[in-house]
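Section 3.1 - Work completed
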Amino acid sequence: MAAHQLLVPEGWKVEGGIQVPPPSYNMIPYLSDVTIKAPDKRGVRFWGINEYGYADNVNLRPFTPYEGRPYFRPQRSLGDFWLHIFELNPGEGITQLKVVSESELPELTELVRKQLASLYHSTEQENRQLAMSGMSMEFDVQGRRLVVRYLDAGTEVEATIFATVRHTAYRYANGQVKAGMWTLDNMYAAFGPAGTDYLNDPALCAIVRSRQELPEWQAAIQQTYLMMQQQIVARGRAAMAAAARQAAVSRQSQSEDVLDISFNGWKSRNAMSDAGHASDINAIHERTTYATPAGTTVNLPSYYQNVYADQQGNYLMHNDANYEVNTDPTFNSRNWERITPTQ
């Protein structure tokens, strides 16, 4: 099944792709790593969902299967993660990787925390239920920007990596992690020869803006998350199930916003030209305009039969005729209202 459509300039090379994970990674829907690269070392790289599990009393080699995910302890920073990954698997022709800078993206952090507000709320509920046991749960998400430099076949290249980092953990009363999960969502990189203005490169911006998930792929991933949720709930970790489900709900809506912040506001730069062609653009991107309970409108993917909104700016979309969000224990802390396309 095809997953995405992408603009690839003539003469540029596409590397990588999407893989089915091994059965031991049964909580990971797919593995994805795609690079579009020019002969002059400019390019863009997209990753899929990078999700890892760990516990303080478990010590395994990185990527050893652990509760359906690769085992990998959270690192102190995104830079430390990449240095560790480089140490384990340098990549063909890549040498001398070093971290130039790393920072939080406050605008992105604020955005994703708002989009995942329901998970902060469910964490509070979970902690009230856990209070008598002495255990606790924590959840947080943050937007990060990492700048690295390395040699690619002798040419010094700089890359800027953007990601939202999510962390969920259950802790014993002594602070030790009983079960933890951390995820790199919406991770993208733009790169070019060191010293060039690659973040404002028109070709790279065009490639990024062209990326679209195909309808059949999104529907399949939604269904996968529904099945994963049932497995996690069976293990008695309803809040982790909520995190997995909410990731599926929010990931696509976050994607455009992450890219917009990453690429210096390409969305706003193109807003004027887009405004005159709104219906054509929606058709190209297979998006439909819905009326929200607040009286505003929102453009969402066109291929879902069931679309819901809450009063917090979150949207839930699915094609499962037997799934009712308002009876789902991981989502029924608030009311979801079905919304319909505008006329």
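Second construct:
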Amino acid sequence: MQQESPEQHHEDPRQRDQKTLHRELDELTSELRMVIPGVTVLLAFLLGLPFTSVFSDLSQLQEDVYFVAFLSTAVAVVFLLSEGAYHQVRGKPYSKGRLLKTAIRQMVTALILLSIALSAVVFLVTDMLFGTITSILVSGGIAILIIWMWFALPLFRRIRNDR
């Protein structure tokens, strides 16, 4: 357990809260910097797919799954970029607490959409290569893995207060 320095002990609680908010905003911004490039690459792949010769060979099911993946990815990008847009358009002064709360909700929404998109893309590619039964199993496995790693495990650890 880290001991508080005398300066921290006498620090104004509002100032400490502002430091915490600033640190949490920095952490969220760093996380966004890690996620955005991958989602952008996925969107670029999905944007280009209809213009390939393979796209005309897709079944109706594959086209529907493609559209779910495409739309989920596009909306995820909107949510991921919203924090920066909100911050710039809103201008100063602004409430860091409100910005952080809004940005976290946007990030979680984007991750939900991205989990749908990734599962759909895995289904689409696997269906093209191995058929529908295999694609259901593989994309279902990916969906379970995503749900566990991105949502269930962090929530489980938060509930147990296991950091």
